[in-house]
Specification:
The protein is α+β, with helices and mostly antiparallel strands. The chain has 6 helices and 13 strands. The chain has one domain. The N and C termini lie far apart (about 40 Å).
Length: about 300
């Protein structure tokens, strides 16, 4: 089973302040990494297409994985990363595919937000001992930012979590899972906590523009020939891939081993995509305190 480590567990926002890196004041922005400009239909592989909206830039699989890998992460499963350079909101979208097998939605009416939140909190408490040993700040889950909900018409499962670490750094999850015939897409919006609500709205046209082709859609599943993941929506929320792998004890410890990579992934996303984005925004957006900003200079 393909494991998409970057998409399981809690995504931590590692704050990166534009302008903290040394640069020449008048240096031109770096050249654009290879990308696709919208509007355009793009084949993402795995029988998945996106009608990339105007104003969006998409890094295809090899380039997205390269940028993530340069940040120190193993980006297995990532098939695209998307930014909107001219948006007042600093956010990016990372898309991955997991061929875990068919996910049953039979428990769609049984998603218990209170019980799931308790599970996250209990699991996080268990994780923290291991986090200490790994030199990673301990976590506290505060609340849902978006209670788990499933839209049967589009076969999309979404949820969001807000929490903080022992250094009082907030993190936020904004997860969407689009189910397919024998796998699912992870579409995750990355933004600072104070911008996540606006980022979710801005990202919605992109999320809706990503779809499985006929033959690979959820409704094309054939129980007689296609593999099943053995899990439902609840299992997908609390850790899908680890459940499928048969982890019955130490479940959240297993997820934690992935979390250390997740923190690196977010830092890489900010370093690779956001810094590229910041350098193309007017410096007036982050003026220096002691002098007027130079025209056209980027803040990063």
């Amino acid at each position: 089973m393909r494991r998409v480590a970057v998409m399981v567990g809690v995504l931590m926002w590692t704050m990166w302040a534009p302008g903290t890196e040394a640069r020449a004041e008048d240096a031109p922005p770096p050249p654009d990494p290879p990308h696709v400009d919208g509007p355009k239909r793009v084949d993402l592989g795995y029988q998945v297409d996106i009608d990339l909206p105007a104003g969006m830039k998409l890094f295809e699989r090899d380039e997205a994985q390269r940028l993530l890998r340069e940040g120190g992460d193993d980006p297995s499963g990532v098939i695209a990363a998307i930014v909107q350079p001219d948006s007042p909101i600093d956010y990016s979208i990372v898309v991955a595919y997991d061929d875990a097998g068919h996910i049953s939605d039979d428990d769609a009416d049984q998603l218990d937000a209170s019980a799931l939140l308790t599970s996250y909190r209990e699991g996080t408490d268990t994780q923290n001992a291991t986090r200490r040993s790994m030199g990673v700040p301990e976590l506290t889950i505060d609340r849902w930012t978006d209670e788990p909900h499933y839209v049967g018409a589009t076969h999309q499962l979404a949820w969001g979590l807000l929490g903080h670490d022992t250094k009082q750094v907030q993190f936020v999850n904004s997860f969407t899972r689009t189910l397919g015939r024998t796998g699912y897409l992870s579409i995750n919006v990355i933004a600072a906590p104070e911008q996540i609500a606006a980022a979710q709205i801005a990202a919605r046209p992109v999320i809706d523009a990503i779809r499985f082709r006929a033959g690979a859609r959820y409704e094309d599943y054939d129980p007689h020939t296609d593999k099943s993941s053995g899990i439902g929506l609840t299992g997908l929320i609390v850790g899908g891939a680890a459940v499928t792998a048969g982890v019955k004890t130490g479940f959240f410890i297993k997820l934690l081993l992935i979390l250390k990579k997740l923190i690196i992934v977010i830092a890489a996303a900010i370093g690779g995509f956001f810094r590229w984005l910041f350098r193309r925004k007017p410096k007036a957006a982050t003026p220096a305190p002691d002098r007027a900003p130079a025209d056209g200079a980027g803040p990063g």
